[in-house]
Hints:
The complex is a heterodimer. By secondary structure, chain A is mostly helical. In chain A, 43% of the residues lie in helices and 0% in strands. Chain A starts with 5 loop residues before the first helix and ends in a 7-residue tail after the last helix. Chain B is mainly α. In chain B, a hairpin with a 2-residue loop joins strand 2 and strand 3 (142-145). In chain B, helix 1 (3-20) crosses helix 9 (185-196) and helix 5 crosses helix 6 (115-135). The A-B interface holds A 1-2, 4-9, 11-12, 15, 17-19 and B 67-68, 71, 73, 94-95, 97-98, 101-102, 105, 111, 115-116, 118-120, 122-123, 203, 270-272, 275-276, 278.
Amino acid sequence: LQEKHKILHKLLQNGNSPDEV
Amino acid sequence: PESADLRALAKHLYDSYLKSFPLTKAKARAILSGKTGDIAPFVIHDMKSLTAGEQLIHCKQVPLLEHRQEQGFSHEPNDEAELRFFQRCQVRSVEAVREVTEFAKSIPGFVNLDLNDQVTLLKYGVHEVLISMWASLMNKDGTLISYGQIFMTREFLKSLRKPFCEMMEPKFDFSVKFNALELDDSDMALFLAVIILSGDRPGLVNVKPIEDLQDTVLQALELQLKLNHPESLQLFAKLLQKMTDLRQIVTDHVRLMQLLKKTEVDMCLHPLMQEIIKDLY
């Protein structure tokens, strides 16, 4: 699931801007 | 939990709501009723005022727009108005998903849930949260956009070509009914947390801790509504019923997005939105 949702996963992990991930 | 704990939870969620979301319902209602003392929002009611409104935003947000253009998600001046508008909505929605994620992470216990479940809760909850919050920016005649700088009329949105004209009407219908409950920002904070902590989302691995968290937030919401709206009978029950309406609206919205992705060849769907709507409903 995390593989299919890399951006959501990154946002959850570190709060980057959606355009940076 | 004791009442004091529930009140502390309500206060915590309200504080993080204020930190996460830049345009509160209180501010939006003040703008909509002309009580801010600031300049009134620019009104978009036809194609001419749409162009003027876009120029206004462009002047105020040049650094942001340049960044978006580098990313390929800004509108191009020669694009059709409907596509330009849709791309703008998308840019704002992507930012809003980041805000909702930050809010979710502030819910006590959320970050300790299984990471796959955190992803699932956001995937399924984020549009329900966004549509609930969007109601704060709407009245029966239109909606604030662009952080309250612009008011776009409902009639103008209805005049767009198909299928874009069909996107907003269900949200307006919902907002009129939802706004009749007269929730304030502190109520909204708890309601949004309840939506996010829905233990019946498909594919959840470990439901029990999610339901336990939701249970506590539900108790905090019930107490909050009793204290904040003592005259409003059955408000808690009425609010929970809105969650059913929200699911239907989101299902229809996602189907429309999936249709747009297939039929609008010039439309570019942001990777984050693609992630969220893929295999959703």
